[in-house]
């Protein structure tokens, strides 16, 4: 959950002194130096999460699973944060905490800020639950986590996030919040601060850590179990093959020709050979089933590793802010937090929405292929756009030249009374032609 501020004086945390916003003058160099990196963060957040949504929409292997619903839900929350929240947060940093867009927009923007950040954090809980089911029940994952259930869970994430964010809009605020029209705060109410911090961060953090510990334990057990199962299947298949080979060798020693005929006819003494075929097929099917189960589990385990990276970055980005903020506002309001430190941990939380697409691109092969394909397609279209314009210009030039030559021949033939002959355009015609070419 983000607080709309650029400094300690404009945070959710009430400061002793408010910034002076009347007749404020801004240093251009400082404004550019501050605003440029923040705008780049906002643009990169929008670009990266748009890539995630396009990858899910265009890649069949990503779109077909219910997991895509949770990943898309996370990307939508981060995208809305980059579009609706980060630009205003950047302006607040540049203006040193002064809000010039009116109190109504302030309340709406602050609620959208809390909504998007809470939805992003809770989407990680939904992804953790999905990965836990995928690792513990890989063969039943598709039947347990259906798209309908995934959509219902994603809707629940947004509903709970909405309940957290509308508190200040419904009056859960400190009296006198609107006394300063150029200051934008969410709420100074300690009860709301405790509620929002617990529901928006610490409760989801406990859920995510719980599921990831269970995922790690289940993955370790499944890895050992599947490895032992494959070894056992191979040993059984090897022993059966050796036993049947011994029987076949003995039969071949006594009556090779008879055995061969019986095998082809499929009757009598050839039953032992037919039993070999059935046993071999059974063991082969068992091994294929075990191999398929192992391959599916490996995919789920790789997805769980990706989730582990996402969770680690999530904790790294958000924990500093949600430690400093409640400490300052609930436990020690008189404590002084350095302005630079608060700004760093404040924007570090925002950067979590930027990091998620990068994590997917670096740790998930399917997302990496989808991102590369989308970027390659975009670059290809840009390269093809210029040659297309050149070809169009050449066609127009050729058509104009042919028309001018035909008109010139017609004029010559009408003046001399002779049949039209091929000639060159006049200087005036060439000038008009060059002007058309320059226009195109």
UniProtKB/TrEMBL annotation:
<feature type="transmembrane region" description="Helical">
    <location>
        <begin position="191"/>
        <end position="213"/>
    </location>
</feature>
<keyword id="KW-0297">G-protein coupled receptor</keyword>
<keyword id="KW-1003">Cell membrane</keyword>
<keyword id="KW-1133">Transmembrane helix</keyword>
<feature type="transmembrane region" description="Helical">
    <location>
        <begin position="150"/>
        <end position="171"/>
    </location>
</feature>
<dbReference type="GO" id="GO:0005886">
    <property type="term" value="C:plasma membrane"/>
</dbReference>
<protein>
    <submittedName>
        <fullName>G_PROTEIN_RECEP_F1_2 domain-containing protein</fullName>
    </submittedName>
</protein>
<dbReference type="GO" id="GO:0007200">
    <property type="term" value="P:phospholipase C-activating G protein-coupled receptor signaling pathway"/>
</dbReference>
<keyword id="KW-0807">Transducer</keyword>
<feature type="transmembrane region" description="Helical">
    <location>
        <begin position="306"/>
        <end position="325"/>
    </location>
</feature>
<dbReference type="GO" id="GO:0007267">
    <property type="term" value="P:cell-cell signaling"/>
</dbReference>
<feature type="domain" description="G-protein coupled receptors family 1 profile">
    <location>
        <begin position="48"/>
        <end position="360"/>
    </location>
</feature>
<dbReference type="InterPro" id="IPR000276">
    <property type="entry name" value="GPCR_Rhodpsn"/>
</dbReference>
<comment type="similarity">
    <text>Belongs to the G-protein coupled receptor 1 family.</text>
</comment>
<dbReference type="GO" id="GO:0043410">
    <property type="term" value="P:positive regulation of MAPK cascade"/>
</dbReference>
<dbReference type="InterPro" id="IPR017452">
    <property type="entry name" value="GPCR_Rhodpsn_7TM"/>
</dbReference>
<feature type="transmembrane region" description="Helical">
    <location>
        <begin position="345"/>
        <end position="363"/>
    </location>
</feature>
<feature type="transmembrane region" description="Helical">
    <location>
        <begin position="35"/>
        <end position="56"/>
    </location>
</feature>
<feature type="transmembrane region" description="Helical">
    <location>
        <begin position="108"/>
        <end position="129"/>
    </location>
</feature>
<keyword id="KW-0812">Transmembrane</keyword>
<feature type="transmembrane region" description="Helical">
    <location>
        <begin position="68"/>
        <end position="88"/>
    </location>
</feature>
<keyword id="KW-0675">Receptor</keyword>
<dbReference type="Pfam" id="PF00001">
    <property type="entry name" value="7tm_1"/>
</dbReference>
<keyword id="KW-0472">Membrane</keyword>
<dbReference type="GO" id="GO:0071880">
    <property type="term" value="P:adenylate cyclase-activating adrenergic receptor signaling pathway"/>
</dbReference>
<dbReference type="GO" id="GO:0007204">
    <property type="term" value="P:positive regulation of cytosolic calcium ion concentration"/>
</dbReference>
<dbReference type="GO" id="GO:0004937">
    <property type="term" value="F:alpha1-adrenergic receptor activity"/>
</dbReference>
């Amino acid at each position: 959950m983000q607080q709309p501020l650029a400094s300690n004086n404009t945070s959710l945390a009430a400061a002793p002194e408010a910034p002076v916003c009347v007749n404020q003058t801004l240093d251009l160099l400082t404004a550019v130096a501050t605003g440029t990196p923040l705008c780049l963060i906002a643009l990169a957040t929008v670009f990266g999460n748009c890539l995630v949504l396009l990858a899910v929409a265009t890649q069949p292997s990503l779109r077909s699973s219910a997991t895509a619903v949770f990943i898309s839900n996370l990307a939508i929350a981060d995208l809305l944060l980059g579009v609706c929240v980060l630009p205003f947060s950047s302006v607040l940093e540049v203006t040193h905490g002064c809000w010039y867009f009116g109190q109504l927009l302030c309340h709406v923007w602050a609620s959208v800020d809390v909504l998007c950040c809470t939805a992003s954090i809770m989407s990680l809980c939904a992804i953790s639950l999905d990965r836990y089911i995928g690792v513990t029940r890989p063969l039943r994952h598709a039947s347990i986590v259906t798209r309908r259930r995934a959509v219902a869970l994603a809707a629940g994430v947004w509903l709970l996030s909405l309940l957290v964010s509308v508190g200040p809009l419904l009056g859960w605020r400190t009296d006198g919040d609107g006394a300063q029209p150029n200051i934008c705060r969410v709420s100074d109410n300690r009860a709301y601060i405790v509620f929002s911090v617990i529901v928006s961060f610490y409760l989801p953090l406990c859920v995510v850590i719980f599921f990831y510990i269970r995922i790690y334990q289940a993955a370790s057990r499944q890895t050992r179990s599947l490895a032992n199962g494959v070894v056992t299947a191979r040993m059984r298949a090897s022993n059966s093959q050796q036993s049947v080979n011994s029987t076949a060798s003995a039969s071949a020693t006594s009556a090779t020709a008879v055995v061969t005929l019986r095998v082809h006819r499929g009757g009598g003494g050839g039953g032992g050979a037919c039993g070999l075929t059935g046993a071999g097929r059974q063991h082969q099917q068992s091994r294929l089933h075990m191999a398929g189960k192992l391959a599916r589990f490996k995919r789920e385990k790789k997805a769980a590793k990706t989730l582990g990276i996402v969770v680690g970055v999530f904790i790294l980005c958000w924990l500093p802010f949600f430690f400093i903020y409640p400490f300052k506002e609930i436990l020690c309001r008189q404590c002084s937090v350095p302005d630079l430190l608060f700004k760093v941990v404040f924007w570090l939380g925002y950067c979590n929405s930027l990091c998620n697409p990068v994590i997917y691109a670096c740790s998930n092969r399917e997302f990496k292929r989808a991102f590369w394909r989308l970027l390659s397609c975009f670059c290809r279209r840009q390269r093809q756009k210029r040659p297309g314009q050149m070809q169009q210009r050449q066609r127009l030039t050729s058509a104009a030249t042919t028309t001018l030559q035909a008109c010139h021949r017609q004029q010559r033939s009408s003046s001399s009374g002779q049949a039209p002959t091929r000639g060159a355009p006049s200087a005036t015609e060439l000038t008009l032609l060059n002007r058309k070419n320059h226009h195109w």
